[in-house]
Amino acid sequence: MKRYLIQLFCITLFAVSCVQRPAAVCIDPGADPAVSAEEQLPTVTVEALKDRIAAGTVTFILDVRTPEEYDGPLGHIEGARLIPVQELAQHPDELADVKDRPIFVICRSGGRCAHATRMLLDAGFRAANVDGGMQAWDDLIEKQSKSASNPD
Q: What domains can be seen in the chain, in order of their start residue?
């Protein structure tokens, strides 16, 4: 119950802050829309993304790395759809089914997903850049695994 109330408070606080901050693109009440100053992109942290996945509120994750990276050592987020950033502009029809849903865009470290997020926003999609990419995601999972195995 306490966690529910905290989440409700955070969502309410976020909704109010979206009205007061026109520079942020508010794609979703739980998306944590920190905006990077250099590109004015909606950005979500890996922690916020993981929380949303756990709560069942993430609707679509787009991985824009290469197939080798997707299947490589960093792995990929379960359920993410792979469309390499180099192919994104050539395959807009592959995302037609998610046109009205928030898209969380991830790559290795954040550079390509920023480019892909900009492309999607310009095409009318509701997209957010995942800050730090799969490197940050992998670090978070590793950190949480260590703390779970060493609950001091």
A: 2-149 (3.40.250.10)
